[in-house]
Design a protein that fits this description.
The structure holds 2 protein chains of 2 kinds. By secondary structure, chain A is mostly helical. Chain A is globular, with a radius of gyration of 23 Å. By secondary structure, chain B is mostly helical. Chain B has a single domain, classed as Up-down Bundle (Four Helix Bundle (Hemerythrin (Met), subunit A)), CATH 1.20.120.80. In chain B, 80% of the residues lie in helices and 0% in strands. In chain B, α4 runs antiparallel to α5. Chain B is elongated, with a radius of gyration of 18 Å. The chains are: A mainly alpha, B mainly alpha. Chains A and B meet through α5, α6 and α7 of A and α1 and α5 of B.
């Protein structure tokens, strides 16, 4: 073994002196995967706060029947911007930001394969995001009051046609997502090339950390699933600007085609967001259970199966369109199939914890809550794959509850856990465990208060995307509870922000390996030097740091 | 580059699907059978340009930079002939047949698919022309053969897509 924590003092970016402008310039021109990763995550968290604000206004409006806090038009903009922001400006940048930071470190590489392409991906994302938010000012062009897109995050045709969406608000949605799509595909290509060609000596595919495996699967899905969205958006641009008829039913075009193209991207997208969550907990759970992951090959195989099946389930978003029984049955079956590899993973994580000496530090708390909430999300997912049931509840709050259990209850929880886990590596300082616990419990309570009642509201028939509702439907109570969860979540996120700010100023120094972990990123200094590793590491098992710490009992012979 | 090609293939697949799905669904004329004729010269030029670019890579691998540059130039010229053919076809369709992207569904899908392909030809053309200039200015060295080969992969991909587009638009669709 030749991996040693380099004694060289890494330039601490927090205390580094120098002109502000010079420092800013350094960050703007950087092609370093670590800095780009940090910028991705920070930008993603900033957009997370904005999207949270939008959600807060939505919940305020729906807290009681007949409220007039916002107008219907504003409400439409709010849920469109909330959804679009959470998926494209929070989910994607944060998961790819983590991958940017971690994949090269975990496989013992110096950087990604194409550092400049990486920088391009980041700036495409950031300017795409800024373009989307500029629509608040410029949506109607320079001559009228501004407006943001209001066609929903999946922008169904014919609502997006010129006749129904005048002005430029839809074009802002279209162009910004298009630009971000190019950036994301570029980053995915980069990650695939890096993983396949730049692993350090001894790091065979079978020894890669599960995080790297799953990000490889995610990148593959992105490369296949995002271009169809770009294609559909190009068609929409042609429709809106050149008078083409792709989605214009009056000229023989097909509005349903947009749905197919969108969901052919949209469903893999769910897994593009969720599998990185799996990837993060697959690193966190073993470390905090003090055990190796249970059934490593099965987890890898299940990830590949999810990646494959995710491409075949898109039309389960369209059961109510009238595709006919054969197609409906086929997509219902594939949707139920995908529960199998996902279930395998849950058993792997539980079996990893079983008999382990579990340390309930904050990352592990988030991972445990993820297990429960993801199980609920998966169960309602299977429920929704039953076509007759879906017909009953499609476009209801039950669906809203389901996908918020996936994207908040599972993805956001894993992201928080991952931030608590890897923050010491990135900054060299620990986050406060005490504040972390407050963050966790408040967010857990707030999340469940908000989203559990939505199941009931949905089953009582409350449709999604309505800006208000009459008082006699029995929805008031559940909506009030939902809205009462918001202050808890707001408090939790504020504590999180305070925690980060305090830790950056006077957090306890982390050292290179605060969690007694096993993957390569913990073998270098915190924060890692620009060159990552002083000498190219050589690994002999799936847990190189275990081998280093326990030379008498290396992992290799047990694998 | 393989990943990029996969992503591009995914992009093209959607346009091809849209073309096939919308085939014959136009509510008004002109229809493909009335106005399209198989672009034989363009096809021959584009497909043979795959051969010339392969020869350019081989020449570079053997250290013959000048010869490589000449083959690249031939590739560029063949691509220009192809694009000229497309331009002439579009000019005829627009001015004589009155078919624009907004005329009917056929126009929509036809210009989108063929235009997407043509834009890829233009991108490849620029890359190849740049390398040809590098060869001429002696900036190109035999050690660059791998990079040139990657560009040639892209070019082969553009050619392969043309085979699909030709089949879909000019053979099946007519």
């Amino acid at each position: 073994m030749s991996i040693v924590a380099p004694p060289i003092a890494a330039p601490d970016m927090l205390v580094e002196r120098g002109g502000l402008l010079a420092k800013l310039h350094e960050w703007v021109v950087t092609v370093d995967h670590k800095r780009l990763g940090v910028m991705y995550v920070v930008a993603g968290l900033a957009f997370f706060l904005i999207a949270g604000l939008e959600a807060g206004v939505i919940r305020w409006q729906l807290a009681a029947a007949g409220k007039t806090f916002v107008s219907p038009q504003v409400f439409n903009r709010l849920f469109t911007m909330h959804g679009t922001t959470m998926v494209f400006l929070v989910g994607i940048p944060i998961v790819f930001g983590f991958a940017n930071y971690l994949v090269p470190l975990m496989i013992g590489a110096r950087d990604l394969a194409f550092p400049r392409l990486n920088a391009f991906g980041f700036w495409a994302f950031l300017f795409g995001g800024l373009l989307l938010y500029f629509s608040f000012l410029g949506g109607d062009g320079l001559y009228g009051a501004g407006s943001a897109p209001d066609v929903g995050w999946f922008a169904y045709a014919p609502l997006t046609a010129r006749a129904f969406s005048p002005g430029n608000s839809t074009d802002y949605w279209n162009l910004s997502i298009l630009v971000m799509g190019f950036g994301t595909v570029a980053t995915s290509i980069n990650l695939i090339a890096t993983t396949l060609t730049m692993r350090c000596r001894g790091m065979s595919l079978g020894r890669m950390p599960l995080y790297v495996w799953m990000m490889l699967v995610v990148s593959g899905m992105t490369v296949l699933a995002l271009p169809p969205l770009s294609a559909a958006q190009i068609m929409l641009l042609l429709d809106r600007f050149l008078g083409a008829h792709f989605f214009d039913t009056q000229a023989g075009g097909s509005a349903v085609m947009w749905q197919h193209f969108f969901w052919f991207f949209g469903h893999p997208e769910v897994y593009i967001l969720m599998v990185p969550g799996f990837a993060m907990v697959s690193e966190i759970i073993p470390v905090f259970s003090r055990k190796v992951i249970f059934g490593y090959p099965m987890v890898v195989a299940a990830s590949l199966a999810i990646g494959f099946l995710a491409m075949t389930v898109w039309a389960h978003h369209m059961f109510a369109v009238g595709m006919g029984a054969p197609l409906n049955s086929a997509f219902a079956a594939s949707t139920m199939l995908i529960a199998i590899p996902t279930g395998i993973k849950i058993f792997n994580w539980v079996a990893t914890m079983y008999g382990g000496r579990i340390r309930f530090a904050t990352p592990m708390l988030f991972a445990c809550a993820f297990l429960f909430q993801f199980l609920c999300a998966g169960l309602t997912g299977i429920i929704l794959s039953v076509v007759p049931f879906n017909w009953q509840l499609t476009d209801s709050y039950f669906v809203v509850a389901h996908f918020h259990f996936v994207l908040v209850g599972s993805l956001i929880f894993t992201i928080f856990g991952a931030i608590y886990y890897w923050f010491p590596k990135v900054t060299g300082r620990m986050l406060s465990e005490r504040l972390g616990r407050w963050h966790f419990w408040l967010f857990l309570i707030g999340f469940n208060l908000t989203f559990v009642p939505m199941h009931w509201a949905g089953m009582l028939g409350m449709p999604r995307r309505i800006y208000t509702y009459p008082a006699d439907r029995g929805w008031d109570f559940w909506n009030l509870i939902s809205s009462l969860g918001v202050p808890f979540q707001v408090a939790a996120v504020l504590i999180f922000v305070v925690n980060i700010a305090l830790s950056l100023r006077r957090g306890a120094p982390a050292g290179s390996d605060p969690w007694d972990a096993w993957t390569l990123e913990w073998s270098t200094a915190s924060p890692p030097p620009p060159y990552n590793f002083e000498t190219a590491p050589v690994v002999e098992s799936r847990r190189p740091l275990w081998d280093l710490k326990h030379p008498d009992d290396p992992d290799g012979p047990h694998e | 580059m393989v990943c990029l090609i996969v992503a591009e293939a995914s992009l093209f697949a959607v346009f091809v699907v849209a073309y096939l799905y919308d085939l014959g669904k136009s509510l008004s004329g002109p229809s493909p059978g009335e106005v399209l004729s198989v672009p034989i010269l363009g096809t021959v030029c584009l497909l043979s340009s795959s051969v010339t670019v392969a020869l350019a890579v081989r020449a570079l691998g053997r250290g013959a930079v000048r010869r490589s540059g000449a083959w690249l130039l031939a590739t560029v010229l063949l691509a220009v002939v192809f694009l000229t053919g497309t331009a002439a076809e579009w000019l005829r369709l627009i001015t004589r047949e009155g078919l624009t992207i907004g005329t009917n569904l056929f126009g929509t899908t036809f210009y989108a698919l063929v235009g997407l392909h043509a834009s890829h030809v233009i991108v490849g053309l620029i890359m190849l022309a740049l390398i040809a200039v590098f060869a001429w200015s002696r900036a190109l060295r035999p050690s660059h053969v791998e990079r040139v080969e990657l560009v040639s992969w892209y070019w082969h991909f553009v050619d392969a897509v043309w085979v699909v587009v030709l089949t879909v638009v000019y053979v099946i669709g007519r």
